[in-house]
Amino acid sequence: MNKDELERLVEELYLYRDLYVERESGTQAPQKSIDVERKMVEVMEILDANQHSIENKAEYYMLKGKCFNVASHYDQRAEESLSKAVKLDPSLVEAWNNLGECFWKKSDISAAKDCFTGALQHKINKVSLRNLSMVLRQFGKTEEEKLEHVSSSVIKAREAVQLDVSDGTSWFVLGNAYLAQFFGGTQSDAVISACMKAYAQAEKDPVAKNNPDLHYNRSMCSLYQSEFQAAAQGFKQAARLDPSSDLPSKKLESLKYYLTSLSTMVETKCSMDGKTRLQKIISSINDSQLGSFGGGMYNGPSGKSVPLSKISFTDLQEGANKEKVVCGKVLGSLSVEPAIPYTFIYVDKDSNAIAVCLYNVSHTYGLKTGDSVAIAEPHLMSTEVQVSEDKETIKFRLLRVQTPMLMVVNGKKLGIEKQAPAKLSITAQSE
After folding, report:
1. Are 165 and 157 in contact (CB under 8 A)?
2. What CATH class has 258-418?
3. Fold of 3-242
4. Domain map (residue ranges) of the chain
5. At a CB cut-off of 8 Å and minimum separation 6, what does 227 contact?
6. Cα 196 to the chain's mean position, in Å?
7. Distance of alpha carbon 223 from its chain centroid, rounded?
8. What residue ranges of the chain have pLDDT lower than 50?
9. pLDDT score recorded for residue 302
10. Which pLDDT score, from 0 to 100, does residue 361 have?
11. Could you tell me the sign of the dihedral formed by the alpha carbons of 42, 46, 47, 48, in that order?
């Protein structure tokens, strides 16, 4: 075999890995790592048997190292071969990129960064840019330094996409960079929207579409936004694509528990429906509990004065309820995991119960049964999720409250000290 044929053989090895689940229709997914290892050994044998056809030894060692590097885990043989390649030919960009990925798997982040930066000095290319984007997010000791690195990460990922707008992997890395920027403190709707658009672009690429991390990370984002059906579907797909990881399945089970529990709590009013205690709680609701929201005006998060009129839960409209305020009592709360905002069950004077997701609240803050709560300009969502094929659809209404500063609790408006940006854990093994 000549050099071009050997290069094509190594490329086919990577396609075999990346499209494995799609080709096998998921039935052989648990066998993926074993079959990829077997295929890698076959390619290595052919490569070694035909090494004489590659005059440039640096290119031979690069192909050999790339072959060893196909596994998701670190392989010392890959590092040794790729190190030889870049020593023999420091201008071999592909070798630098593969060596950087090898160091990433080894958790040697500084060495990985040096490899990608070095490769870019020889040639501007999408692989180095997107890998550098991924690596940059691992640096920074202080919050300020981390945010600076994340901003740089977004820039590098954008540059990678601009070089090839059809490359789904670059779009996936850009989505992750936006996600890190959002949960790093930006908390901008524009950023989270850009993140989801990048993931959508990534899914158009057959290779990126088969990356379980794409579906897992997007599901975590959907989960945070209370888009539960999309989150459930994504976790299922991530689990199908990577049966060796139990994380997506655990997240799906956690989501099922959350939704089932929340639906029951709303329906039964936290097991108080028809009981004297519930009637006492409801009878104690009055307009004085509106606090500063009761004067017909309030200062919103932007500092501007906003007019308010009180409405009941039944008068709430789907989406944003501008210039409206609701008042009620807390019946109970539910906490499952950090990805899901703080959730409590809320009842109004007409005995209507609804779930509330409170975003960006300090992890040390919580509400107790009987607390009075007024919410300015609440956002209503109608939730409908089928968590399992054999179970009925779960339905309930949910209020999204973006900041505790939109709430008056027991007659007092919550201050900025109760606010804290949310943190989200994503996976990045396959970037």
Report:
1. no
2. mainly beta
3. 1.25.40
4. 3-242, 258-418
5. none
6. 9
7. 8
8. 429-430
9. 66
10. 81
11. positive
